[in-house]
Structures are given as C-alpha cells and as structure tokens.
Amino acid sequence: MQPPPKRQNIETEVTPSVQETLFEFHQSQFAPRDVSLPLDVLLLILDAVHDLKPPSDALKTLCLCARSCRVMLRPSQVRLYAKVTISRRSEFERFGRTLLDNPKLAALVKTLYTDVGSAYSDVSLLPTDGPLSYTAIRGMTNLQMLTVGGMRKNKLLPSMRRDSPVLEAFIGSFAVSCLQLTFLRLRKVHFGEYTGLVRQVTSFPVLERLKLSASTWGKPGQLTLNEIISTVSRHRLSAFWMLEHLELHLMNDDIRGVVVALRHITSKDMKTICVHHRCRGISEYMPMLYANLGLDEILAGPIYRSLTRVTWRLVSNQGEAQVWLAGLPRCFARLAKRKILVCEWRFEPMYAVCCIV
Known about the structure:
By secondary structure, this protein is an alpha/beta fold. The chain has 3 domains: 38-80, no CATH class; 82-235, Leucine-rich repeat, LRR (right-handed beta-alpha superhelix) (Alpha-Beta Horseshoe); 241-357. Helices cover 39% and strands 17% of the residues. The protein has helices at residues 16-27, 39-50, 55-68, 70-81, 89-101, 103-106, 116-119, 134-138, 165-177, 194-201, 225-230, 257-263, 286-292, 295-298, 321-331, 333-338, and strands at residues 83-86, 111-115, 145-149, 183-187, 190-193, 209-213, 216-219, 245-251, 272-279, 309-316, 341-346. The longest helix has 14 residues, at 55-68. Mean pLDDT is 77; it is low at 229-235 and 350-357. This is F-box domain-containing protein.
C-alpha cells in the first residue's frame, strides 16, 4: 500500500484589488490602533480618582494607576503623598522605610497628620530616634502643614508619664528641616515644662498659623540667661512675624490672657482671630469683665487693620449666655462698625482646655 501524499502548503496570491482593500481599511476610522491620551486629560482623571470617597478607595486606585504605566507613575505619586495620615505603629514604620528607600517621595509631602498616641500606648515604647527618624523627616522640604497628636492619658493610670524628650525632639526635627511649614497643630501633647512648649512652637521660622488643642505642661521651667539675652523676643507671639490666623481656647477668668496675647503680636498680615471662651457657670461680673478688657481698643490699632474676621465664641451650658452674646457688640463697637465681628454661642459640656497665650 502506498503512503499518503505529503501535504503541500499552498500560498494564496494577494491580488492588487485585495491590497487596495486592506490599505483602505487601515486608513479608516474603524481600524484598530493605539491612541495616546493627552497629559492634561490623564491629570484630570487622576484628580477625579483622588477625590473618590471613601479615601481608602482613592488610595487603592491611585496605587493601581501608579503601577499601570510609566507615564502615570509620577502624577499618581504626587497625589498619593500630598496628604499623609499615619496613626498606627506599622504605618509609622512603613512610611519611614519608604522615605529612606526613595528620598524623592519625601519632597512630595505637603500635609502630614501624625497620631503618636494611637501608635504607642506608652512613652517607653517610643523608638529612640523618634516615631520617624530625622533622616526621613529631613527630606520633607515642601511640608506646609503638620499635626502631631501626643500621648493619650491612661484613665486606669492617671499618673502615667506623658511627656517625653523623644517626642519633643520629634517635633523639633520638623522645625530644622521643613522651612516652608506655615501651619502647626499640637493635639494633646504634654510637655514636661512650659518652656519646652515655648521653645518648640517658636522654632518654626515662617509659621503663620498655630493651633494648640488640649496641650499641657507639668511645671513652668526656666530659660537660661544666654537664651534670654540672645532670643529676648523669640519666645512669645512676637516671634511669629508672618502670623495670619490666631485661635485661642480659654476658660473663665483666664480670658484676660487674650489681652496679653494680642499686645505681643507683631505680624502686619493678621486676617482672622477666633476666641473660644469656655465658662463653667454664669456669674454677674462676666459682662463687666468683657467690657473692661479693652480688646476693642487694641484691635483698632494699626497692626490689626488687615483683619477680615474676629470670632468670639462663647461656650457655656447656661441659657443666659445668649444674653451675654447679645451685648457683645457694645463691647466691640469698632469691630461691629467694621462689620467683621462674629458672635457665636455653643452649648456643650464643660471640660478643661489648656492653651498657650
């Protein structure tokens, strides 16, 4: 029996008419092709992704965009690191390693929120070089807004120490390296001495806005003679020559401290002042105290001509506070005439708030 014949490949001849048809198809709008999106369109897409809710979805999607192609990498990183929030020990460790491995990412951070108290339950657990090392912080040269949450008070151990030289050095590291930082918020940060608090907040060279929320100190402390001589005007509000916004939280008779604070301001760019006065109870002398503070005269001075808003927020659990509020415009006649006075009343339980003035 003879074997079957071998299969032969038959080449199909492409006629001129077929070539012409293929050419016309590839030139038509229906032909498959790679189309590059303009860069501005890509940036608009990334902006929309950045605004996704919840924020966790936005972060995950931006990470996917950064890994998709080389063109999307840098724009995605800019949006990923522009605002960083870290509140767990693992997050502090990963973020620190990331900045050390890729120092260029540190320059992208513009807003940083750190909650040290949530990450470390006791000051003894803080790393010796701080929650973030100085090397990692040094690269954040474009940081503009910083929030530091301090150690939380242990209700079971109320005498547990909450101040730490490591935490103070951590705050001071930003003052040395982040020369564009204009906003600083210290939340529940406890200092061993009042002078330690003063040294920290006055070490930021271009600070415009300072916010202290329930920040406290143990004892007054003292400045050395050399510090007093060399930096006589540094450790007070006069040091903030670029200050634009001031917010004070005071209780009861401590409201007299507002006068001290306003007299030490030297910035000519003040825009807003907000005073939160928490009153534990209504006393008949309080309206007279308001009238005798002389704040209206102080705020009429040349240093405050750029003011656009003065908010006086009375926080009390007494209904009579509304009567006080109605009489406030008489205590601030000049501000009322400039139409920049805003009077508010807030009802809430009383609690102690400590703040620098």
